[in-house]
Design brief:
Elements: E1 4-6, E2 11-14, E3 22-24, E4 34-36, E5 41-43, E6 48-49, E7 53-56, E8 70-74, H1 89-92, E9 102-103, H2 106-115, E10 120-123, H3 132-144, E11 148-153, H4 159-167, E12 171-175, H5 181-188, H6 192-205, E13 209-216, H7 225-235, E14 242-246, H8 261-274, E15 279-282, E16 292-293, E17 300-305, E18 308-312, E19 314-315, E20 318-319
Parallel strand pairs: 8-10, 10-11, 11-12, 12-13, 13-14, 14-15
Antiparallel strand pairs: 1-2, 2-3, 4-5, 6-9, 7-8, 16-17, 17-18, 19-20
Helix pairs in contact: 2-3, 7-8
């Protein structure tokens, strides 16, 4: 494995993510899918996934990436984050046997995407950082066969593997789970700074088009929203799309209440007030705040009802009303 350090004849350190798990022979990392086998880090889930699905790209969510197109989505098992509110905990937290998964080679991923008329492939449901080698082999074949690639990730990755990873991604939705170290430490068992570094690097130094999602959990992470938006404005620019999604009680947070549209609208208005051009709400239907507006004339460019595009006023990548370019991949 490329990103590892041999410590001695019994221990090796995984260098994919900031956890840098030191593993004795036979031991698995925090993610539970990367294992020391004969003093080499091996991805045990390579080729295995929890099922292929054809989705609208808006479901990722990617609103500035080939609107209304189809994407072939899949994930595997495990995660390098420890989110107590995980919405996909059945596959990321439970140590399911690999034999319960489907084996699909990178060649078959590309073949299936082509068969179902998909324009892109998304590595999602669990974080592709933990199935790094599988995701990248699929991404390389996608590029060779005219398919675009999307990573849905928490961005908890070390700088060197991040360079190789995002060089092969055409788009990414990076999950910024909150904007305080305390929230990350208590509720994600991780740290905020590496995520911010990943976002800055990907937006400013790669060709990968990035959208950001923050799932709001009332009473937990909504207070620093203005600070988060100001950071985005200063470090990424005003044209980076930002999604505020609703939390639903899951995993260790089953006793919490679902996020209301009122809370999402409050965050939406803060982001617009700060000066961000492309702000959205998700998981709670609201056409007005799911619509992309022209950053110059303010007219609706792409209107959405849930994951369905109901109006498209783009001509290529330009507003049909004033000819202003809309940021994204169209």
């Amino acid at each position: 494995m490329k990103y590892q350090t041999i410590i001695n004849d019994n221990k090796v350190r995984c260098e994919i993510c900031p956890r840098r798990c030191v593993l004795s022979k036979g031991q698995s990392g925090f993610c539970y899918v990367r294992k020391n086998i004969d003093n080499n880090i091996v991805l045990e889930t390579y080729g295995y996934n929890t099922g292929l699905a054809v989705d609208p790209v808006e479901k990722k969510p990617m609103y500035h990436f080939m609107p209304a197109s189809k994407v072939l989505s899949f994930g595997t098992l495990g995660c390098n984050m420890g989110c107590q509110f995980c919405q996909n905990w059945q596959t990321t937290k439970q140590k399911l046997p690999i034999k319960k998964c489907n084996y699909t080679s990178p060649e078959d991923v590309v073949k299936t995407a082509k068969e179902y008329g998909c324009d892109s492939v998304a590595f999602t449901y669990n974080d592709p950082i933990v199935f790094y080698e599988y995701a990248l082999d699929c991404a390389r074949l996608c590029r060779e066969n005219g398919l675009k690639t999307i990573a849905v990730t928490a961005g908890y990755i070390n700088p060197e593997p991040a360079k190789e990873f995002f060089a092969l991604m055409d788009g990414a939705n990076i999950d910024l789970k909150g904007f305080s170290e305390n929230f990350y430490a208590m509720n994600c068992r991780a740290h905020l700074a590496p995520v911010l570094d990943t976002i800055k690097y990907t937006v400013n130094e790669t060709e990968c088009f990035v959208e950001i999602t923050t799932m709001i959990i009332e009473g937990e992470n909504e207070d620093p929203i203005r600070k988060e938006c100001e950071w985005i404005l200063e470090n990424l620019g005003d044209c980076t799309p930002l999604h505020f999604s609703a939390f639903y009680p899951q995993y260790k947070f089953e006793d919490r209440k679902p996020t209301t549209l009122k809370t999402l609208l409050k965050a939406y208005n803060i982001a617009k007030d700060v000066g961000l051009k492309y702000v959205y709400t998700g998981n709670v239907p609201d056409i007005e705040t799911s619509t992309t507006y022209c950053k110059l004339c303010g007219k609706p460019l792409v209107a959405r009802d849930g994951f369905k595009v109901i109006e498209n006023n783009l001509v290529g990548n330009k507003c049909k009303f004033c000819d202003e370019v809309c940021d994204g991949i169209f």
